[in-house]
Automatic annotation (TrEMBL):
GO CC annotation: endoplasmic reticulum membrane; glycosylphosphatidylinositol-mannosyltransferase I complex
Domain of life of the organism encoding this protein: Eukaryota
Subcellular location as annotated: Endoplasmic reticulum membrane
Record protein name field: GPI mannosyltransferase 1
Keyword annotations of the record: Endoplasmic reticulum, Glycosyltransferase, GPI-anchor biosynthesis, Membrane, Transferase, Transmembrane, Transmembrane helix
EC code(s) of this entry: 2.4.1.-
InterPro entries: PIG-M
Organism this protein belongs to: Candidozyma auris
Residues passing through the membrane, by range: 6-26, 64-81, 181-199, 219-240, 298-317, 337-356, 368-388, 400-419
């Protein structure tokens, strides 16, 4: 039987990404349906504005940190350089996979017994393949999505943390939060993880919840993370002022995306977005305001309570990688906007979670299969009705609402199973 290795997984992953990238170039030239993500064109246009000493926010729909446009500046040189951004995203994607392997090497001990199963002997490369050989991950980076940059920053933070390099880990986490807000939920989990590393700063109260958890390690981590975030934000604010704050942060707190959205809140956001079209029907506006109100703001309450407080307190000190995975899955499940790209937010932690989970044991294999099938079918049901709505023109809003509820319930069940199997 052919033996697997992480080097083979890495090599195959790189070849697949190169293949997908080249296929995308051909499809973009020959097909009316483009392979390149529309966001990549937005990034590239924003970089062009920066190259002309203008604001990247002159590009409509650019809702990201200016750092991203700065990183992509070489792509403005023309010719083959137009693919520079994709090369950066693919590189970050592969580096994320390598960092996942490094984290797994601390948890996975190869089983060399003659009686060991194929999975037991090859556990490390198989778990690493969840990211490196995942077609969804490969497609997202090769189409020109910037998600891999954030994934890389987060895994750098985790890798440095596991090596005891708290300062650099906190710097990477601060940069991650600058790129997108959601990694802030990892801060309480990491601080709780560090509780056991050093004695409490308040002697005699080490057994008191919250107060007794404070020590020099997690305070250092907290301060450095905030300083790294503040310095980056102040720098961007210096160059671009309020428009940086609005487009990078404020917009995302109040956004009402209601297309391509798996979220339970999708229908509510559609109704809220339709409010402007009911200006001649005051009674319609009153009903929408009463039922949905500020749904885009209220949605954060259960989301942050669960992912930012309850789950870290319950899990972080026992199993950090498992906690980060379940936190992020919960955050995405309760988010008011969910697209396929959001799934890789928690996928980076899945190999680390499975390394310690009993789900991958032989006796739990059937349950694991049912969990995967439930997630895929729930997503497929939503995509089926979304396709009929957008491409065929059928009125499937009611079916989409039901599909969103089913997908939400499925994810809640999965969260419960993951917690019990951590």
């Amino acid at each position: 039987m052919v033996a697997l290795s992480t080097n083979k997984v890495i090599a195959l992953g790189l070849l697949l990404r190169i293949g997908f990238f080249l296929f995308g170039i051909v499809q973009d030239k020959l097909s009316p349906v483009k392979y390149t993500d529309i966001d990549y064109l937005v990034f590239s246009d924003a970089a062009q504005y920066v190259a002309s000493d203008k604001s990247p926010y002159m590009r409509e729909t650019y809702r990201y940190t200016p750092l991203l446009a700065w990183i992509l500046l070489p792509g403005t040189l023309g010719g083959l350089w137009e693919h520079y951004g994709k090369a950066v995203f693919i590189l970050c994607d592969m580096l994320t996979g390598i960092l996942i392997i490094k984290s797994l090497q601390r948890e996975v001990i190869p089983d060399t017994r003659p009686s060991a199963t194929f999975f037991q002997r090859n556990k490390l490369p198989i778990l690493s393949a969840i990211w490196i050989l995942n077609p969804m991950v490969i497609t997202i980076s090769t189409r020109g999505s910037s998600e891999s940059v954030l994934s890389c920053l987060i895994m750098l933070a985790i890798e440095n943390l596991m090596q005891g390099q708290l300062f650099m880990s906190a710097v990477w986490l601060g940069l991650s939060i600058h790129f997108k807000i959601y990694p802030v939920i990892f801060l309480p989990a990491i601080m709780l993880h560090l509780v056991a590393k050093r004695p409490s700063l308040i002697r005699g109260l080490s057994n008191v919840p919250v107060i007794g958890w404070i020590n020099s390690a997690n305070m250092l981590y907290f301060v450095v993370t905030l300083v790294a975030l503040a310095l980056t934000n102040f720098t961007m604010y210096h160059f671009y002022g309020y428009e940086f704050l609005y487009h990078s942060y404020i917009y995302h707190l109040t956004r009402l995306d209601h297309r391509h959205n798996f979220s339970l809140y999708n229908t509510a956001l559609q109704a809220k977005a339709a409010k402007d079209y009911l200006i001649n029907k005051p009674e319609g506006i009153d009903v929408i305001s009463l039922v949905f109100g500020n749904i885009e703001k209220i949605a954060f309450v259960p989301q942050l309570l669960l992912s930012g407080i309850i789950i870290p307190v319950a899990l972080a000190r026992q199993n950090l990688m498992g906690c980060l995975f379940i936190q992020t899955l919960t955050f995405v499940t309760f988010n008011k906007v969910i697209t396929s790209q959001y799934f890789i937010w928690y996928l980076i932690f899945l190999p680390g979670y499975l390394a310690k989970s009993k789900i991958i044991r032989t006796e739990y294999r059937l349950k694991g299969f049912i969990m995967i099938a439930s997630w895929v079918l729930g997503q497929g049901l939503w995509l089926f009705y979304a396709y009929r709505l957008e491409f065929i023109g059928e009125n499937t809003f009611n079916e989409l609402l039901i599909a969103s509820v089913i997908f939400f319930i499925t994810n809640c069940w999965l969260i419960g199973e993951f917690i019990s199997s951590a």
